[in-house]
Write a structure and sequence with these properties.
Largest sheet: 7 strands, mixed
CATH superfamily of the largest domain: Medium-chain alcohol dehydrogenases, catalytic domain
Strand content: 25-35%
CATH topology of the largest domain: Quinone Oxidoreductase, Chain A, domain 1
CATH architecture of the largest domain: Alpha-Beta Complex
Low-confidence stretches: none
Radius of gyration: 21 Å
Shape: globular
Mean pLDDT: 95
Distance between the termini: 26 Å
CATH class of the largest domain: Alpha Beta
């Protein structure tokens, strides 16, 4: 008779932070793990991703969020795990790798529909924890990158930006420009990931740096930041430029705010006279593209045409400090807690 774990360790919110969340606001707790029911699947998690949107969910200020995380609640988020038990007549089998949204714990039990099976020959399952689908969807559907485009990716050293700059190039962009917060990250973006130029926050006005890097302007913006960087992008927009806004880190990571707004000053006259389109992309906007994204990502990985940078933290004990490390910028690529 198979023996299954009877307890689960999970990361919980201890107290609502005033300002940005810090390690002391979280803890690792243990509770009983119920045996899976006849229609349920039991998964042992291998890794889960740390994502900036948690700050908004914890703040509770975003009325349109699908849920909020309150003191005493366990955190949630994307994870990769291995099936330990599954219904005999269901789509999953013990040993299958799956993705799901019950991260921040070492085991998960849920209905089979909560899990998506990963093909056994996928080259790097942890790469699926990178939120690259958001960037891929925005670049192929909202901004529609074309051959010869000049593309600006803000927050380029983050989980989305490190992948999206490479995707923009693979889609035909002639020049890819990024923004980041340090010269060290800028060097990695150009040396390792093929960015043509990177603007560094704090090394002069972003608008001036962008004018030097793209003197003829930009065709596409993939914006994770907002604020000053969005303002500069509008100033640099070419006629018929396409902007996709998929993040708002300038507001989400502002300690004076609650993570649910990100004011920016934009030149609306320039937007209308240059026929610039601006589309916001939130949440699961491109969820239906997941099979397409997985297929293209797997192909690019096998062909060594794309890499998915990860900052890996070993062990769930490191998880309480992971979000603050992400907020502090101590990360390149996606931050993953590996169990």
């Amino acid at each position: 008779m198979t023996s299954f774990p009877t307890t689960v360790r999970e990361v919980r919110l201890l107290a609502a932070p005033h300002g940005l969340p810090r390690p002391e606001h979280f803890s690792v707790a243990e509770r009983p793990l119920p045996a899976p029911g006849p229609e349920q699947v039991l998964v042992r998690n291998r890794a889960f991703v740390v994502f900036p949107g948690l700050r908004t969910l914890i703040g509770g200020a975003f009325a349109e969020a699908p849920f909020s995380i309150r003191p005493g609640d366990a955190l949630l988020g994307p994870a990769v795990g291995e099936v330990l038990a599954a219904p005999a007549d269901g789509p999953l089998r013990p040993g299958d790798l799956v993705t799901h949204l019950l991260g921040w714990r070492d085991h998960a039990v849920a209905e089979a529909a909560a899990f998506t099976r990963v093909d056994g020959d996928f080259p790097d399952p942890l790469a699926l924890l990178s939120p690259g689908l958001a960037g891929y969807g925005a670049l192929t559907r909202a901004a529609r990158v074309r051959e010869g485009d000049v593309v600006l990716v803000t927050g380029a050293a983050g989980a989305v930006g490190t992948v999206s700059g490479q995707v923009a190039r693979l889609l035909g962009a002639a020049r890819v420009i990024g923004t980041t917060g340090s010269a060290a990250k800028a060097k990695r973006l150009t040396d390792e990931l093929g960015y043509d130029a990177v603007l560094v926050r704090g090394e002069g006005p972003i608008a001036d740096q962008l004018a030097a890097a793209a003197p003829d302007g930009i065709d596409v913006l993939l914006d994770m930041v907002g604020g000053e960087q969005l303002t500069a992008a509008v100033e640099a927009a070419r006629p018929d430029a396409r902007f996709a806004l998929i993040g708002a880190l300038a507001g989400q990571m502002d300690p004076a705010r609650r993570g649910a707004d990100a004011p920016a000053v934009v030149d609306s006259f320039r937007l209308l006279t240059r026929n610039v389109t601006v589309q916001g992309v939130s949440g699961q906007r491109y969820a239906e593209l997941e099979p397409e994204w997985w297929e293209r990502l797997g192909g690019w990985l096998r062909a060594d045409e794309l890499t998915v940078p990860l900052t890996v933290l070993p062990g769930i004990e490191q998880a309480p400090g992971a979000l603050s490390r992400l907020i502090d910028g101590d990360v390149f690529g996606a931050m993953v807690v590996e169990l």
